[in-house]
């Protein structure tokens, strides 16, 4: 063994022990003042001793167990799926557990203990089954799996958020718990986690050798007598169980399962056994270090700050730093932009026929609904002056925002060559929301122009960061995706921490994040329509760029296109349109991903037809989402941004299931 190999072999232990040591120092800084109280027998009531014994120490134990379990789950998933993007969060496993827990707790509020674990396990398994079913039809391509996981995760998260918003009186505590809260009031959770995590960890270690043999391939592993299928199923089951019990106990802490295994591998843990040993220790140290830093910086308010969100603030920059060292994946997902010969083209007649359908949809959304007593009816002429001033602006605003997001999604997907690119997935919408948040906290009374300007700056900042990372990797799809996931998680975590601080202005931010169109009036609708018209006009003027830039910079330059100038202009346009749409429907709408996919599935490959199809699909889906939000739980209303995910995600999943593995 060479000196370099020896140093690498000690890299993972050094990283794990360093993280644990730093976390231990911060924990001791908190424990030291009251440690003597714990060792002494107090005759009277001592609140500091009780706080240390039943809150501080259980919280430390919970952080160590949860971090280790999530990291072990991520290691198993990444090895079995041969996918460095796999984790309980990116595959929708944690979100599935969270949704089932929220739904069942509405019916059985006293749910606890083993029953919670069973419910969480059922939800995790259901979400994983959908993701793996789609992945199997796409040859288990890494990008296809993560795309399916993101869709399932957004759908589950949107439905869980709607349930919480509709039952805020009963489920208000789930806002903090769902974001990953480690606050404890007894030893119940860590003592229940310990035997479960131990048993599952032993099962994972027993599979170390079979999992290592999987690297030899199907034929090589089968030749040694290994049942590859059974090994994969067993490992996935253990990974799902680990994620489910952690989500059941403390909510969603998603970034640890993605980042800790990558740190272990980059630190030198090459063999499966070493990964299964050092990855959980790295995850435990990383989560405890994050939690202790949170306690140190926030003081008494730390109870209300979700540790899962804070983890993303630390894990996202680490992931960005590691991106240049990640090896490119060789997914076998068919690139729909490069395999147009396999697409089924539709005639322009069908595209033109969709316009009257869309007009009927808009008319139905305006005039068809429920009367005050709840009966379905058409809006009578005498009620027009009372209802239309409130209903029409929000429908127009929703349609304008949907068209902008659909166009932005098309621009980003064609520029990056990545079918998962969209303002929501790549963190651009989160950047716009962060810009709007900055306007609220910096300016005394920011108007629409100021909000739009700050939102555009936030979106453009994210685009610049993605562009810089994309240049270094040649715009490899997996690295662009990882950059977007990291930036989006970091920005969302920052906004979640801000909202948890109790500032009244944070409620406005939460309304945008949920995609509320309640407050869209005539001036806002006119502004959104104007922005959409200008953005669409500029996008269609640049359709030649969008046709030629995907061919590569050399080919585009040979035709006479100034590549850098064209890319910068299109990115700036995408940022401005994203900011304008975010002001109306928030960052969670999912329209920017669905619109281009729907247009492409209909056979629209050239830039101009695809822009048209994406705009119509995005606008129509957003209007449908707004209508469903007004009618499903009448007289209550649900945010259109969340409903759009419920409407569009199942449709997109069905379309993905129809796309067979490329031959």
Brief sketch in words of this structure:
The chain has 663 residues and is mostly helical. The chain is built from 28 helices and 2 strands. The model is unreliable at 1-8 and 328-347 (pLDDT under 50).
Question: Helices and strands in order, then pairings?
Answer:
Blueprint: H1 3-9, H2 11-39, H3 47-81, H4 93-107, H5 114-137, H6 142-166, H7 168-171, H8 174-178, H9 188-206, H10 208-213, H11 217-223, H12 228-250, H13 256-266, H14 272-298, H15 307-322, H16 348-367, E1 368-370, E2 376-378, H17 384-416, H18 428-442, H19 448-473, H20 477-500, H21 505-514, H22 522-541, H23 543-548, H24 553-559, H25 563-585, H26 591-601, H27 607-631, H28 640-658
Helix pairs in contact: 2-3, 2-13, 2-14, 3-9, 3-12, 3-13, 3-14, 4-5, 4-6, 4-12, 5-6, 5-12, 5-28, 6-28, 9-12, 13-14, 13-15, 14-15, 15-20, 16-27, 17-22, 17-25, 17-26, 17-27, 18-19, 18-20, 18-21, 18-25, 19-20, 19-25, 20-21, 22-25, 26-27, 26-28, 27-28
Low-confidence parts, pLDDT < 50 over ≥5 residues? 1-8, 328-347
Going across the biggest sheet, name each strand in turn: 1-2
- Put simply, the count of helices is 28
Q: State the order of secondary-structure elements, H for helix, E for strand.
A: HHHHHHHHHHHHHHHHEEHHHHHHHHHHHH
Q: Given the helix and strand composition, which structural class is it? A: mainly alpha
Radius of gyration: 25 Å
Number of strands: 2
Distance between the termini: 42 Å
Biggest sheet features: 2 strands, antiparallel
| Proportion in helices | over 70%
β content, as a range? under 5%
Give the overall silhouette.
Answer: globular
- What average pLDDT do the residues reach? 77
